[in-house]
Amino acid sequence: MTQRAILRTTFWLSVGDAITLLAYAVVAIIIARTFGPAVLGTYSLAMTVAGIVQIIADAGYNIWLPRAVAHDTSAADKLVSIALVTKLLLWVISTPGAVAVAWLHHAESALLTMLALLDTLASCGSFTILAALRGMNRYVAPQLLSSAYSLASACAMSGVILAGGSIIAVVATMAAVSIGRAVHLAFLYARARGSIEGIRHATCLIRWNDIAHQLRMQRQLWLVNVASTIVHRAPLVVLGMRADSVMLGFFAAAFRIYSAVRILPGALFNAALPLLATDRQPARERNVLLFGSAVAFAAGIVLFLGAEPLIGWTFQFEEAIAPMRLLAIASAGLSLKTAFEVVLISRMQDRFVAAAIATVACATLVAAWVIPATATSFSLLFVASEWFLYIIFAGWFALQQVR
User: Fold this and answer.
1) Close Cβ partners of 110 (under 8 Å, ≥ 6 residues apart)
2) For residue 253, what are the contacts with CB-CB under 8 A and spacing of at least 6?
3) What pTM does this model have?
4) In 3D, which of 45, 70, 218 has the Cα closest to residue 139?
5) Contact indicator for 144, 15 with CB cutoff of 8 Å
6) DSSP H helical segments within 279-349, as ranges?
7) pLDDT at 8 over 80
8) How far from the centroid of its chain's Cα atoms is residue 100's Cα?
9) DSSP 164
10) pLDDT digits (tens, 9 = 90+) for 20-76
11) 138-142: long-range pairs with CB below 8 Å, 24+
């Protein structure tokens, strides 16, 4: 695939991700303006805890599966069936701990988390299908279909709020739409493969050894995802356990905008990894790094300069402006780090990437319990973690080039 094709695929994946994140960002804004910062904080905590469970249950498949299917399309049904069963088991194991963590903040947070976990379970199935389809070089249509469901979910959630529904009813609506998306994507996969019988047959033949063997093969990628999630999401959870819902709401407002910007490096990662894994070329790697750098500085500058109007137009919390500016700096480091990360993983440097991110994740968790429990302090923590990871990855890449 040419550079133009990579950019085109990245663009459409970005559009799909943008629809999803912006739609849910609008929901968060409506929640903030309707219920206030305390409810926004409680809602954000529940969604973050559920998101961590989703990454744990993913077990690295969203990175590994496109690469594996691209190498051997005939094995797609078996790989998908093992992935689905594995994710279900890990979801069941992780759920009690997630609810317990949310309960430490507030009883309502625990209830919202339980509902959000139903959405997570459906999303695990949806993302498995999307990952397999990317491996079969089917990027755009499935992603846009998934994003359309996200848009429908956001509209339904907004309708519930405007109709006077509770935050519990809002999250329950999200879970219901997510289940519908999973079913629709399953039919899309069946059409691409000719039928769904291959998955059913492969599922019946799964043994515990198959799951254990698969997890051992991708344990480094699993660790990368879990550690990255700790770096990105755990601070919000820790802040929720240390501060009140109002402070958490101020941080969540800035964090929501920061998360929306993550679609660009995320789309680049999803588009570039299968291509670099199957046909790695120095010129292609260079293009990925250049594009990632351009995204980093453009996004960082726009966010930093536009922090005050962005917060003013959306959440209207003045207390979120300073954290937003700091998260703008963090977003530049994130994009730079992601560009080098995808190149290193395509070079089968999973172990180094996992070790680096795990180390920073541990440091992030320790720091989150030590620094002051304020929105500004936790935003500074994001700046330090993202830029430190970029320095590590860029340095390791440069060392490999010298060798």
Assistant:
1) 99, 100, 102, 103
2) 28, 32, 37, 40, 311, 314, 315, 317, 320, 324
3) 0.81
4) 70
5) yes
6) 282-305, 307-313, 321-346
7) no
8) 22
9) T
10) 777 888 899 999 999 999 999 999 999 999 999 998 888 877 777 877 777 777 777
11) 138/192, 139/9, 139/12, 139/13, 139/271, 140/9, 140/12, 140/13, 140/16, 142/185, 142/188
Q: Euclidean distance between the first and final Cα of the chain, in Å? A: 28
Please answer whether residues 203 and 81 qualify as being in contact, where contact means their C-beta atoms are separated by less than 8 angstroms. yes
Domain holding 201, by residue range, is: 3-402
Cα distance between residue 335 and residue 234, in whole Å:
19
Q: Within a 13 Å sphere around the CA of 384, how many CA atoms are in the beta-carbon half?
A: 15
The sign one gets for the Cα dihedral 38, 44, 50, 53 is: negative
User: What is the C-alpha to C-alpha distance for residues 185 and 64, in angstroms, rounded to an integer?
Assistant: 19
Rounded-to-integer distance, Cα 7 and Cα 15, Å: 12
The vertex-287 CA angle with 20 and 9, nearest 5°, equals 35
What's the one-letter identity of residue 213?
A: H
Name the domain count of the chain: 1
What phi, psi does 311 have (nearest 5°)? -65, -40
* Helical spans, DSSP H, in 106-207: 107-135, 140-162, 167-193, 197-204
Amino acid in the structure at residue 236: L
Rounded (10°) CA dihedral 7, 276, 286, 230: 90
Spatial separation of the C-alpha atoms in residues 253 and 144, rounded to whole Å:
26
- Model confidence at 1, in pLDDT bands (50, 70, 90)? very low
**pLDDT, tens digit, for every residue of 360-390?**
999 999 999 999 999 999 999 999 999 999 9
Whole-angstrom distance, CA of residue 266 vs CA of residue 309: 25
What mean pLDDT value characterizes the chain?
84
Residue 353 token pair: 């990437």
Residue from 218, 217, 214 nearest 202 by CA: 214
Provide the pLDDT for residue 196. 64
**Nearest CA to 316 among 101, 11, 29?**
29
Name the H helices within 347-374: 350-370
What are 66's two structure tokens?
């496109």
